[in-house]
Amino acid sequence: MKVAIVGFGFSAEKSHVPAYRDRSDIHLTAVVDPVTARRAAALRQYPNIRVYEEFGDLLEEYSDEIDIVDICLPNAFHMEKVKQALGADKHVLCEKPLVLNKGEYHELVNIAEERKRILYPCHNYKFAPSIVHAAYLINSGEIGKPLFASFNIFGADFQSGVSQLKLELQKNQELSGGGVMIDHGLDAISVAQTLFGGSPQRISAHIRNLNQTDSNLEDLAVFCLDWEEKLINISVSSLGSIPKAYYRIQGTEGEISIENNDIFLSVKNKPVQQIFVPTHFDDPGHANWFNGLIDNLLDCIKTENTKPFPLTEAGLVLDLIEKANHSSNNGGAWMGI
Ligand SMILES: NC(=O)c1ccc[n+]([C@@H]2O[C@H](COP(=O)([O-])OP(=O)(O)OC[C@H]3O[C@@H](n4cnc5c(N)ncnc54)[C@H](O)[C@@H]3O)[C@@H](O)[C@H]2O)c1
Prior knowledge:
The protein is of the alpha/beta class and 337 residues long. It has eleven helices and 15 strands. Residues 7-11, 33-35, 38, 72-75, 77, 95-96, 122, 124, 160, 162-163, 165-166, 284, 286 line the site of nicotinamide-adenine-dinucleotide.
């Protein structure tokens, strides 16, 4: 499969490209970026690819050499470029969040269906090795019936330093689509889906802007999901300087605790098992998670599965974020999903 990357910034360079480089079934053929230095960075690593300033020029001149368009642009530009790529009959991998509202989401899902192309949002936490392993332990019944989960994501106000526009984009609600909720909140919801399947029935949320003097986007969200007889309590913040993630799941027979590269499995009447699963939540590139995602994308393309799970999940996430804001504006009242 031949891939063109649109937006050669942090995510493209640190997460997508390292995975493509190690695979024989994916070939990077082109890069689009309006910034000369970013096109030069792409050429330094791949001297034989084509680089373009405009996506339209790539589609006009080099369309035959592209099967998949990989969109790694700032959030606000996803919608337009995904539409353009699907319109040119390309499969699309798009960085998260896919889009910023439900209207845009439904429009894209319809276009992908009409064109019979795969639209695959890059929900990479589903492929984080320790999350995959914990899902396996839960599904194997190791902790009995899951009852309660608590996720604590202490994110950092991370800047890639690649795009000069980035800081501006992150602070603008219209362009970014939100603060920590659309970023780590999305990931936490995706993790809950991966671990438990099914879907939540209600949400109660408290969303705050505690420390951003020059931005009105939220930097803390604490929310609780009523999820098919389980309660899932999630705190996500971008208040820290080093990203840290802790996940704890309690069931009728035991408990799983994920702390960066270790899983601790405690089952009643047995010694605690420490399982080393290199995951590196503290590395924002998450390059080693990307291979599983690419395998799944290629599988969807091969089987013509036009409803990849992350696409359904992207719709759920937008619903939950809308309800979370509504709940927070109403003192944390439960909102049905
Ligand atoms: N999956 C993950 O874990 C993960 C991690 C980081 C970022 N992301 C997502 O990846 C996307 C890109 O984030 P990033 O950190 O790579 O951003 P970035 O600013 O580092 O890179 C964006 C690139 O797009 C280019 N660009 C093209 N058109 C542009 C335009 N009209 N305006 C501004 N820049 C334009 C910029 O020049 C830059 O090279 C975002 O949607 C973000 O949420 C995901």
